[in-house]
Structure formats: structure tokens, C-alpha cells
Amino acid sequence: METNLKKLCDLTNQIASLEPWNWLYDSDLIEVNLDENRVFYVSIIGNEDDVNGIIVYEGNAGYVDYLRVISDPYPTPEEFVLSDVDCLTCMFVEDDLLDDVHAEIIKEYGDEDGRFYFSSMKKRFFPACLSDYEIGVLTEVYSQLLYGLKQLLAHQCEKPNWDRQETLSITDYEIGIGKLPKISQIYDTIIIDDEYEEYLEMQERRQDELYLDLMYLNLPIFDNEDEEESLLCDVNPLLFNIFDENMDLIHSEFIPLDQDISSFVFNCTMDYFESEGIPEAIHCRNEYIKGALQDSCEKLDVELIYEDFSDVQSQLEFIN
């Protein structure tokens, strides 16, 4: 592992020496094909960001995560979007900007000067150090990425028209122009059938409005008094919350790891409709919720308002 990590750090230093963030934008994706079934999309950040870095997304699912990150998330809190992504990152930072956790990551995985560190980002989990497999993947990707960047910088290959969804495509150190996947939607939508619509139409109608939200706690949870055994140190708990018009919390539920977010939001909201009645309007600021409820709200004549609303973190202090 130490040999592989040393090689990865060496490749990272070589990429950094080219300063690609000074002549590439985060939207100038580079495609690296390790084989037919392993495609990676590399985004270089720093040209329009405060921190320089290399973000690697895998496959079509990774590309969808990239689209979610790069698009304007408003009114979804940026903190949520950045926590809800699968990717491998390398960030270049100054020591005095690090918290204790990242300082430890740099101590283990950074170069001798502590200029960069790696993280494995997975939905529903806290950032983690790279596994042996991920170190191997990044080493392969960075090796071809370095070659492609050198060729691009030296004008030894054709430059993609990134504005037309083209990408620099690298396979076995052969460079060409590729096309990015066509993605029809980046969040799931749930359609209700006529039979269920008729059933919901028979439910009581309420003269109030609800606020629905998703929130990563960004803190570990305990399930008993023995913290050492019960600490779910790798899981970043995701909550689905329902608030009334006064922003008082009336329902809160952890979303299990094996549950699809959109489906959970839909099922939990429909359960509420069936037990408590159907409100006049629903406010939300998260695309998962909007996609899950847009069809049902339209058919039930419930106004779905997609907007920013006050920070609700203070409402959840009791969970800590």
C-alpha cells in the first residue's frame, strides 16, 4: 500500500506542477477509460473556486452527481449537495485552513509538505481515507490524466469543445474527443396511478401548509450508552423532516441506508396524507422532495412551492 500511495502522491505532485486549474474550468471534463466497464470523469476545480483540487467521478451515476454539484443548487443548501455525492477527491490546501480531522488525513495521506490530501466521498457516509482499491484506481486514472494534460498543454492533441458537451477522452494513453452522456433528469420523479390518486382524493383536506426538508446531520449517532461499540462512525445520518407552518417539527425520521431517498420521501409523505389529511400547500427546498412529490401534488391540487426557507438546524438540536 505504501508503494502505491507513494506513486499516487508522485503523480499528484506532477499534475499540480502543471497548475491545470489556471487553464481549465471545473466544467471542462476529462474522460479516462480504464476498460470498457470503468469510465471516470475528472473535474479540475480552482479556476473559479477558493480551493484547487481534482475530483474523480465514476460512470454515468458519477456524472449525474457531477451535474448535481456543478448546477446552481439553490434553494437546496450547498452543504447538502456536497454531502450527497460519490467521488474521489484530492484537495490542495494550506495547513492553517485544516480542522483536526483533515490534519490527520493529511498526516497519513498527504505529501511531505502537507500540500494535499485525498478523500473518499460516498452518499450517506462521512468522508473517509482511501481504501487500497481506491488508491489503485486513482493511480491508474492520474497516470493517464497526467499524460492527457501534458498533451493538451503542449497543443499535441485536439482540444474539445466543452461548450458542446465534448470531453477529452483518454484510453490506454490514446487521446480523442468524446461526448458526455445524455442525462434526461438528475433527480427521480415518482408518478402515481389513477387508482391511488382516487384513493387519496377521498382523504381529509386540511387548511394548512407543510414544510418538508432533508438534512444530513454531519455528526455521528449513538444507539446505547457504550459509545465505543455503538458509534456509527462512518454513517452520516440523513433525516427527513416535516414542519408545520410555524416551523415546529412535527415528524422526523432517519432514512435507512438501504432505502432510496426519493421513494422514502414519497412513502413517508403519502403515509402522512393518509393519516393526517392533505394540506393546501407543501414548501420544500430539496430536489429529491420536489421530484418525489411533483406529480402527486399536481394531481391532488396541492401547491408545491420550491423555495428557500429558514435554516432548521436549530430545530434539531435535541438529536445531538
Quickly give the structural class: alpha+beta
**Radius of gyration using CA atoms only:** 23 Å
Intertermini distance: 37 Å
Helix percentage: 25-40%
Principal-axes geometry comes out as elongated
The profile of the biggest β sheet is: 7 strands, mixed
* pLDDT < 50 stretches: none
Helix count from the secondary structure assignment: 9
Strands ordered across the widest β-sheet = 5-4-3-2-1-6-7
Order of helices and strands: HEEEHHEHEHEEHEHEEHEHE
- Portion in strands: 15-25%
Oligomer: single chain
What's the number of extended β-strand segments?
12
Mean pLDDT value: 88
Could you walk me through the main structural features you see in this protein, from its secondary elements to its overall organization?
It is a single chain. The protein has 320 residues and is of the alpha+beta class. The protein has nine helices and twelve strands. The strands form two sheets. A seven-stranded mixed beta sheet has the order 5-4-3-2-1-6-7. A hairpin with a 5-residue loop joins strand 9 and strand 10. It is elongated and about 65 Å long. The model has no long low-confidence stretch (mean pLDDT 88).
